[in-house]
Structure to design on (541 residues):
């Protein structure tokens, strides 16, 4: 479904965010993308829908070469790629329903969206999707009145209403508590299985990634250094992705002696990994 | 390292890092203040005369006379209010596209430059100067006042709207763009909801300003209550002038209360 070949992104400052990334994601597969901050994870998924323009390389969505599209065709292609964000990125002052229906913007004419007169099929689809993510009672609330977990569900519903083939998911749980994080990850994997969606999930929490995702891709300084099953994340592999750290210790041990952990490298949330 | 080895004093870094520059600026400002104070030339004799005249003015204000010139006052007030409403509406309608065009995160560079130029042109002249130009162009009367206030409203609203648009949360705009939305839909769904409360607040504030300015531009011949006030002062009719000023104060206060009431309801 998604085929990335030789993707390079060099920012105008000269920083190389991605340095020749190859990645293939078949339909129905959810891939976890891990790596330290600044490794290029966000840049990678934003290159796919060209919110960030790639410097070199090609990206194919099915048969469509995304990197070669004109502005107009890019808008059409974006409809097939739903995006879910770390801070939810809902339009705070719009209602839940408006946020979800904004997933249809690529399909409707401006005046219809301006008057909020979406087609009967779109409205029914929005209600059905909100029911699926468990928010049918909150349709008319403003987005800023919801809790973090509820907001992320709205974000997911918005992406689903696009009728996408691919989901690009940027740190979906980074702003959520551990329990809500698991619920959201479960919802995402279930939905992808139901609808045979391909998905790339940027995720900081390695333990959470291992719990829900079968395939993990590790990115370090813009280069893929691991692509394999989540069970394959041995201490050696984690060191290759994140750098030196005592990966054999559990979270509890690390807490007991977290001075040492803070002084030596990766952020505490990564130590949960093993 | 033992605790005694650490420094025991700490100062906040100064606002201007270079000590030379810091002292040069402080001393320069002080020297300017001294020279400027010395340059003020106060004519005490004229000041004393002025106090006497101010007393007459003040006595006149203690007995405002609404009836003697009522028809003039009513006409001037009607002109001023008409000028206020029409110029605010027209000014805001024109300022919306200019403001969107002057926001760097929405407009391409050429559009941005043109719109910023319009804003700069509109803001570079004070209302009174613009009013004098329009009076020279279209003659005395409220039409010149209407044109002046519309022109000033465009610069004011467009500049503040553009700044507010540039401050929106980019994540919300990115999310709407990623759905495949068009530019107009982006403005409608991601930008407008974010700037709406401030936009409404600015519109109400501008009604206020335009009413006050309508009194000022009248003095240079652009119609409205300012013209009536000017006539009253020219004729030494301080009681009628006082009546006009009281009416202006009441209307400005009413507008203030109304706008704070509306602003409480949005957010």
């Amino acid at each position: 479904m998604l085929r990335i070949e030789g993707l390079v992104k060099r920012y105008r400052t000269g920083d190389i965010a991605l340095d020749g990334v190859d990645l293939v994601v078949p339909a129905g597969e959810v891939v976890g993308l891990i790596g330290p901050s600044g490794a290029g994870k966000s840049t990678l998924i934003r290159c796919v829908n060209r919110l960030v323009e790639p410097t070199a390389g090609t990206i194919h969505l099915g048969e469509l070469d995304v990197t070669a599209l004109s502005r107009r065709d890019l808008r059409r292609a974006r409809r097939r790629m739903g995006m879910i964000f770390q801070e939810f990125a809902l339009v705070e002052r719009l209602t839940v329903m408006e946020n979800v229906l904004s997933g249809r913007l690529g399909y409707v004419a401006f005046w219809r969206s301006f008057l909020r007169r979406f087609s009967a099929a779109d409205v029914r689809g929005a209600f059905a999707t909100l029911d699926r993510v468990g928010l049918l009672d909150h349709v008319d609330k403003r987005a800023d009145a919801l809790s973090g977990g509820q907001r992320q569900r709205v974000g997911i519903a918005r992406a689903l209403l696009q009728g996408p083939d691919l989901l690009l998911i940027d740190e979906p749980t980074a702003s959520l508590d551990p329990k809500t994080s698991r619920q959201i990850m479960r919802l995402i994997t279930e939905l992808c299985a139901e609808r045979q969606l391909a998905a790339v999930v940027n995720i900081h929490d390695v333990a959470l990634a291992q719990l829900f995702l079968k395939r993990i891709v590790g990115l370090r300084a813009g280069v893929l250094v691991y692509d394999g099953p989540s069970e394959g994340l041995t201490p050696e592999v984690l060191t290759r992705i994140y750098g030196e750290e005592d990966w054999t210790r559990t979270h509890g041990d690390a807490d007991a002696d977290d001075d040492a952990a803070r002084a030596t490298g990766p952020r505490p949330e990564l130590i949960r990994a093993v | 390292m033992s605790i005694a080895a650490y420094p025991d004093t700490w100062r906040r870094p100064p606002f201007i890092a270079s000590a030379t520059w810091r002292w040069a600026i402080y001393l320069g400002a002080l020297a300017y203040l001294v020279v400027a104070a010395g340059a003020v030339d106060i004519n005490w004799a004229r000041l004393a005369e002025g106090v006497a005249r101010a007393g007459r003015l003040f006595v006149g204000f203690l007995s405002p006379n609404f009836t003697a010139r009522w028809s003039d006052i009513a006409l001037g007030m009607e002109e001023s209010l008409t000028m206020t409403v029409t110029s605010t509406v027209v000014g805001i309608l024109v300022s919306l596209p200019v403001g969107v065009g002057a926001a760097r995160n929405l407009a391409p560079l050429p559009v941005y430059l043109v719109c910023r130029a319009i804003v700069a042109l509109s803001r570079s002249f004070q209302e009174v100067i613009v009013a004098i130009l329009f009076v020279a162009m279209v003659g005395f009367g409220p039409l010149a006042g209407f044109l002046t206030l519309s022109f000033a409203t465009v610069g004011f609203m467009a500049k503040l709207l553009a700044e507010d648009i540039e401050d929106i949360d980019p994540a919300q705009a990115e999310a709407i763009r990623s759905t495949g939305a068009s530019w107009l839909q982006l403005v409608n769904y991601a930008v407008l909801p974010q700037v709406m409360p401030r936009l409404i607040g600015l519109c109400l504030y501008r009604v206020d300003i335009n009413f006050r300015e309508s009194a000022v531009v009248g003095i240079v011949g652009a119609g409205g209550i300012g013209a009536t006030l000017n006539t009253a002062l020219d004729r030494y009719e301080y009681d009628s002038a006082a009546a006009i000023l009281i009416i202006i104060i009441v209307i400005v206060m009413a507008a203030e209360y109304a706008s704070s009431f509306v602003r409480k309801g949005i957010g």
